[in-house]
Write a structure and sequence with these properties.
The structure is a single chain. It contains seven helices and nine strands, in the order E-H-E-E-E-E-E-H-E-H-H-E-E-H-H-H. It is an alpha/beta fold. Strands 5-2-1-6-7-9-8 form a seven-stranded mixed beta sheet, sandwiched between helices. A two-stranded antiparallel ribbon has the order 3-4.
Length: 216
C-alpha cells in the first residue's frame, strides 16, 4: 500500500531526541519521512546536527501528507519565528490530517489557540498557562495524549509520543502496540517475542523479509 509521506518540521534548536522513536518506526513500516523547514536553508539542531530541509513550509499541503510532526526547540519560547509552523498545524487539523507536537511545540499550538478545545499535555501545566491560552481545563497530567487527530507529549516522553503516533496511524495496534511500548519504555524482554511474531506475519503478508517488516 502506498502511503503519503510523514513530514517532520525542522528548524534551528530542534530538539534531536524527541522524535527518533516515532520517525524510525514509521520508516520501518514503509512511510517516507520528509523534513520541512522555514525555507530550504540548512538548520542546526540542539545537538549540533545540520539538516537541509526537503521542503519549505510554504510548499507543504495537508493533502500531500500523512502526518506533521512538530518538535520542541528553544525558538518556540523566544519569539514568533516558529509561529508559521503552528499556523500550518491549524491547516492540517482543519483538514483532518494528524499533527503530533512534543515539548515546546505544544506551547506554539497553545498560542495558536489549537489546545483551547482539545485534551492535551506538555512538559507541565504552568508552562502552557504562561502562554495565556484558554485550554487549561483540558490539560491532562499524563505522558502523552491523543484527541482526535492531535497528539501531544512532554519532552521526557519520546517513547509515549511514538506510541500515540503509531496508534493514530495504525502502525501497531492492540497487543503489538503494547509490546512495542513495553520493550522500548520498560526494557521488558518478554515483549520482544510478540513483536517478532508480528513482524514475521507482516513480512509474509507483504512478501518482505521479517527484518524489513517493521522492526522499530
Amino acid at each position: 500500500m502506498t502511503r503519503k509521506p510523514a513530514h517532520i518540521a525542522v528548524y534551528d534548536t530542534f530538539a534531536d531526541w524527541e522524535t527518533g522513536y516515532a520517525t524510525t518506526g514509521l520508516v520501518r513500516v514503509g512511510y517516507e519521512t520528509r523534513t520541512v523547514g522555514p525555507d530550504l536553508e540548512p538548520v542546526t539542531t540542539m545537538g549540533g546536527l545540520r539538516v537541509t530541509p526537503d521542503l519549505a513550509l510554504a510548499d507543504l499541503r495537508p493533502e500531500d501528507s500523512s502526518l506533521l510532526i512538530l518538535t520542541g526547540a528553544d525558538l518556540w519560547d523566544s519569539g514568533d519565528d516558529l509561529a508559521p509552523f503552528a499556523r500550518k498545524a491549524r491547516e492540517f487539523l482543519d483538514a483532518g490530517v494528524p499533527v503530533a507536537a512534543i515539548c515546546g511545540a505544544t506551547a506554539g499550538l497553545a498560542r495558536e489557540g489549537l489546545l483551547d478545545d482539545r485534551a492535551h499535555t506538555s512538559a507541565i501545566s504552568f508552562y502552557l498557562a504562561a502562554t495565556g491560552y484558554k485550554g487549561g481545563e483540558r490539560y491532562v497530567e499524563t505522558d502523552a495524549v491523543t484527541d482526535g487527530v492531535l497528539v501531544t507529549a512532554g519532552p521526557t516522553e519520546p517513547v509515549a509520543f511514538a506510541r500515540e503516533v503509531f496508534a493514530l496511524l495504525k502502525v501497531y495496534e492492540g497487543e503489538v502496540l503494547d509490546a512495542w511500548y513495553r520493550l522500548f519504555h520498560d526494557s521488558d524482554a518478554s515483549a520482544y517475542e510478540i513483536l517478532e511474531a508480528a513482524e514475521q506475519a507482516a513480512g509474509e503478508a507483504t512478501g518482505r523479509a521479517p527484518e524489513q517488516a517493521g522492526r522499530a
